[in-house]
Write a structure and sequence with these properties.
The protein has helices spanning about 5-10, 35-40, 55-65, 80-85, 105-115, 160-170, 220-230, 235-250, 250-270, 290-295, 310-320, 365-385; strands at about 70-75, 95-100, 120-125, 140-145, 170-175, 195, 210-215, 275-280, 300-305, 335-340, 355-360. With about 375 residues, the chain is of the alpha/beta class. The chain folds into two domains: about 5-250, Type I PLP-dependent aspartate aminotransferase-like (Major domain) (Aspartate Aminotransferase, domain 2); about 250-385, Aspartate Aminotransferase, domain 1, CATH 3.90.1150.
């Protein structure tokens, strides 16, 4: 079956003559076993609610098919998924190499929580490629890749980074949220763990928080599962059900997000107010050549570097938006636009651009209506001079 079909069929076991199309929500803490043998052997790994119910297993099966992994487990958020993956392989005295463009809350976890427990994080230029070899040592246990970067969308050379990391004995964790697993396959390219904030495109409706961790092999999966088990991680069955329901329409939604995102980016690229479009499908985006090699498409999330603006102009732009929402996150049906500040989150490669950066998430609205909204906001920005 092709991937589109797998996402419709996955996690839908037919166990009785009359069954619902969707697996039902199974909420449980305690499971009862009819015999002692059932109790000691477990029933298809369903033993206690915290370890997952059939609802969770159905979602894990579907995401695992999408990512092409050995096993997928769930976490209560995307941030938790990344953090758990780091904790699975690090102990006091170890080092982590993390892309300088990494998601800021993950950076805070590394510089705060992990540092307190004796784990050092070294940030590297996201365009380092095979030159990451110079940063590797026996102390480095994890290389954290985020491709593209959260705010500035650099594409990393994952195959080159993974090859160097594995030669040194380090594991590679890749954040795959931007592609939602549709346009990019980190495990196929060498990652040991592919994580997603299922909050975004997988769920697709901006109404829940969930994360996924897909392991490439059995040993990695065991380490990830033991970490989740020992930390007491749990996801509600309702959130797992809603994410699985969102997954059924993922490929259709992603095609629309991609189409609208490209149309907005092309229009913005022609505007005099815009210095540069930071969209991986555009030559102006760092790592575009690698994007063409490793990705099969693009999502609806990108940034624009504006020409220098006064604070009043930035405020006027955002206050004039009527369709675009001003809010965090992305990947839902609604379009969003936020002012981001890459200069606050860089140490290896400082961000020195003069103009502000606006990040846009193209939703499922009509693209022409979104363009009209941006046109109105840019006019308000100009009038605020």
């Amino acid at each position: 079956m092709k991937e589109d079909t797998k996402l419709i069929a996955a996690g839908r076991p037919h166990r009785r003559p009359h069954h619902p199309v969707n697996p039902p929500v199974e909420r449980a803490s305690t499971y009862l076993f009819p015999t002692y043998d059932d109790f000691t052997e477990g029933a298809k790994n369903i033993v206690y609610g915290r370890l997952g119910t059939p609802t969770h297993r159905a979602l894990e099966e579907a995401v695992n098919l999408l990512e092409g992994g050995f096993e997928t487990r769930l976490a209560p958020s995307g941030l938790a998924a990344v953090n758990y993956a780091l904790l699975a392989f690090c102990r006091a005295g170890d080092q982590i190499l993390a892309a300088d463009s990494v998601y800021d809350p993950v950076r805070k976890f590394c510089d705060g929580f992990l540092k307190r427990f004796g784990v050092e994080t070294i940030y590297y230029d996201p365009l380092v490629g095979s030159d990451i070899e110079a940063l590797l040592s026996p102390r480095v246990k994890v290389v954290l890749v985020e491709s593209p970067g959260s705010l500035t969308f650099e594409i990393q050379d994952l195959p080159a980074i993974a090859a160097a990391a594995h030669r040194s004995g380090a594991r590679v964790v890749a954040d795959n949220t931007w592609s939602a697993g549709c346009f990019y396959k980190p495990i196929r390219l060498g990652a040991d763990v592919s994580v997603q904030a299922g909050t975004k495109y997988l769920a697709g409706h901006a109404d829940l928080l969930i994360g996924t961790l897909t392991s490439a092999d059995e040993a990695t999966a065991r380490a990830v599962f033991q970490t989740l088990l020992q930390l007491g991680s749990n996801v509600s069955a309702d959130d797992a059900f809603l994410t699985l329901r969102g997954l059924r329409t993922l490929k259709t939604r992603m095609a629309r997000h991609e189409e609208t995102g490209l149309k907005l980016a092309k229009w913005l690229g022609k505007r005099a107010e815009v210095e540069r479009v930071l969209h991986p499908a555009f030559k102006s985006c760092p790592g575009h050549t690698i994007f063409k090699r490793d990705f099969s498409g693009s999502s609806g999330l990108f940034s624009i570097l504006m020409k220098p603006l006064a604070a009043g102009q930035i405020k006027a732009f955002f206050n004039a938006l009527k369709i675009f929402g001003v809010g965090y996150s992305w990947g839902g049906f609604e379009s969003l636009c936020v002012h981001v500040r890459p200069q606050n989150n860089r140490t290896a490669e400082p961000w020195t651009e003069a103009g502000p950066v606006f990040r846009l998430s193209a939703g499922l609205e009509d693209a022409d209506d979104l363009i009209a909204d941006l046109d109105r906001a840019l006019a308000a920005m100009a009038a605020a001079k």
